[in-house]
Amino acid sequence: MAFTAPPIPTSMTIAARDWRLIREEARPGPLNMALDETAARTAADGGPRTVRVYSWSPSTLSLGYNQAPETVAWDHCRDHDVSVVRRQTGGGGIYHDAVGDISYSISVPRDELPGDLMDAYHVLLEPILGAFDRMGIDARLVDDEQPALHEPACYLRPLHPAHDLVAGPDGRKISGNAQYRMRDAVVQHGSLSYALQPDRHLATFTDPPVTDDEFRGRVTSIHQEAGIERDAAVDALENALKEWADATTGAWTADELDAARELATAKYEADAWNRDRTDPTD
Description:
Blueprint: H1 11-14, E1 19-27, H2 29-44, E2 49-56, E3 60-63, H3 74-79, E4 83-86, E5 94-96, E6 101-109, H4 117-124, H5 126-135, E7 140-141, E8 164-167, E9 172-181, E10 185-193, H6 198-203, H7 212-218, H8 222-226, H9 230-245, E11 248-249, H10 254-268, H11 271-274
Parallel strand pairs: 1-2, 1-11, 3-4
Antiparallel strand pairs: 2-6, 3-5, 6-10, 7-8, 8-9, 9-10
């Protein structure tokens, strides 16, 4: 008997599930990462799948899972009240604040996505590309890999056709996206560049060999490409996620918030995790 591969999920099959949208909220970096992990557990346990939009308060440098701690300008971050938190996902560090970028995540049971990583990215990037379209920005996956300008920084790493979105005639990066897979769930989260702040971004890294002008030559932003206010960009992203998933606007449960706060304290605030990549909850 010939083997027939299961169909790759699309927005139509994704929307047949129970989804909630959690609209933009500003939270500390450790709690944001804990909420992503908590949302994945909720989805894996039969609860709603979650699409969410969020920002970071205080300003935060989020590190890629494998990022070496010596690439971080720890003293600068401490002196300028920039929190540092390690993500579960790979890639490089991203400086987040209330202006520079807009963050999102999608949490879904693992068996509802393609097993192939590229296919999974194509499914979960549909609403992100749709959001840029709503903003009037011609964003697309980068066609070919491009070399790194500074490996430790997400927006300056090699551009990858699987998950890096570029915009404009010169194809500058406008969004970085990454996934991690738990036993029963997948989280994809990402950053959409809203307003370029190369000086603040680069200052969080140790001796980056990149000038502000070189940063601007690699990275673009929603404001530069479309000239819209940040609130309008957030609305476009929220509405694209909501429509893609046919989601209902929702909220965290009290149990989820309690679990996320406990996880943030035990793991995402711990030096063992953020500096040494050792999970103290294992």
